[in-house]
Each structure stands twice: as C-alpha cells, then as structure tokens.
Amino acid sequence: MPTEVRPSSGARRFLSSRLLWSESLGSAAREAHRLGYQGLEIWSEHAWRDGPTSKLRRELGRVPLQYALHGPSMDLNLCSRNARIAKLSLEECVRALSLARAVGASVMVVHPGRLSSGKDDPEEYWPDLIEALAKLGRHAANYELVLAVENMEPRPRELITTPKDAHRLVGSVGSKSVQMCLDLAHAGLKGANTVSAFIRLCGPMICHIHVSNVTEGRTHLPLDQGSSPITPRALRFLRREFSGVVTVEGATPPGTRTAKVGLAELARLLDGARG
Hints:
Blueprint: E1 12-16, H1 25-35, E2 39-43, H2 44-50, H3 53-61, E3 66-70, H4 83-102, E4 107-110, H5 126-142, E5 146-150, H6 163-173, E6 178-183, H7 184-188, H8 192-202, E7 206-211, E8 213-215, E9 218-221, H9 232-241, E10 245-248, H10 256-271
Helix pairs in contact: 4-5, 5-6, 6-8
C-alpha cells in the first residue's frame, strides 16, 4: 500500500524521474506513488528513451499521480551562437511541450540558454533568449501549459544565475505562460542571501521549485546529506505563500532510498513533521 501523505502546506510534493533513471517511466511512476508522492516530474529524455508517447500515456494514466515535465536540456542551448543548434534546441522544446500535453502535465521546466564562449559579452545573448522563450510561451499558451524557466548554477557561461537576471528575463518575455522554476540548490551555492533574494524579488513569478541539498561546490545531494539551502525566508514562502509544485531532486546517489528520504525530509520542512 502507498504511504498516505496528508500535507498541511499547499505545496504539492513531486519526485524527479531522474532519481529513478534506471527504471522505465511507468515503473518510476508506480514507485513514486507507492512512496507517497503526489506527482512525478518527468524528464523529457527519460520519456523519449522509453518509446512511443501513446504507450507512455496509457501506462502513466493507470497511476493516480499528477505530472510535470522537465524539458530537454542535454546538448541543447536556446541561444547558441550556432544558429542551427539554437533552432534545434527550440524545436526540441516545442516537441517536449507536445509531450507535456499528452501526459497531462500542466508545467514544463526549461533551462535558459547559456554563452557559447566565455569570451562573449552576455548582453549579446539576451535578445535571442527572450525571443526563443517568447515563442515557447506562445506554444505553451496554446497547449494551456505554463513554461517555468529555471535559474542555473553559478558556473562559467551560465546566463541566469542571479535573482536580478531571472526577474529581468521573465519580465522581458512578458507572458503569463512564462514563469519561473526556482532551483534552491542552484541558488544556495551563492549563499543564504541569494536564496532569500530570489524569494523577495521573484516570489510572484515562481510556480515550481526544485529542492536538493548542497555542499562546498556541489549541488543535488539527497536531502539527508550536505546542507539545506532553504533559508527561514524561503521556508516561510514555502509554508505560507506557495501553492505550486516542489520537486525532490538529488541524483547523487539516485534510487529509491534517496526518493524515500527526500519525501520524509520534505514533510519535516513543509509540515514540521517529526521523524
């Protein structure tokens, strides 16, 4: 029997399919339900690896879960200086939006573009990135979906790593169909002040959240390892203001144990549950 979850917080608890990457998506969905999650955030590459969408839709439809989709990110860049790569990246994200609609997802997370070279001026990339996200936003609106742009790790060539840049990007697109996915671990690498600044500046834009723990220079640790990036300000936001999805990530190490611990730790955070 699945573990019964009775959350007091309005946030819905999802599991990232990356944590069960070695399993089929049908098996991952059944495991997420057995553990007590309310939903599964499906990685596009996981779904495409598994075969025809029609078969996947039937299999997922047998599991009483909600679904979100993580758009494709492997080897893609929406604002690449190579126009063919940028075009292909956009086409793959449009294809993923169709997948999101097919599996009944309401949100698709997308990685913003990045610099092709560390020697480039970041400002030169903004017009192409805004245009690409605006196009995706129109497709998302047609499918009655929301596109959630994720803040990235503070590493070389990434464009969107600060609260100011995330706010600027979503605001520049200017579409209700384009909002923000806050990755707390990515933000946490720059410290507690950055996490709190994301909440203050971008709070109304945030419709989706990724959570995992961090340590020196590393993200996506299981929630029982490393340090939590959730500041008191972020915790108040999660408990009192946020009603979207919180997805447990943490792919190192992946597996059922990490997924099980993740849900228990998330319950302690959101509900004050005791172990």
